[in-house]
Write a structure and sequence with these properties.
Layout: H1 3-13, H2 17-30, H3 39-56, H4 64-74
Length: 78
């Protein structure tokens, strides 16, 4: 780790937990590259589609227990 990075880390570790979390989130986001300008709009459309399907009763909802059981059975072979 470079001296500059070590200094930044030392400064960050002196922050309150909420501030450290914000700094960490921004640093991680910076590794993702440029944002896709259409992604948020596409996700909003998908979310609305899924909400409509739930409200219309056209999808079968599963509890976490059901889903976990299915994953263990189908994927993990338990």
């Amino acid at each position: 780790m470079s001296r500059a990075a070590a200094d930044v880390l030392a400064d960050a570790l002196r922050l309150e937990p909420d501030s450290r979390a914000e700094v960490a989130a921004e640093l991680l986001a910076s590794l993702d590259g440029p944002r896709d300008p259409d992604a948020e709009a596409a996700w909003n459309v998908e979310i609305e589609r899924r909400i409509a399907a739930v409200e219309a009763g056209t999808v079968r909802l599963e509890s976490w227990a059901e889903l976990k059981h299915r994953i263990e059975r189908d994927i993990l072979g338990r």
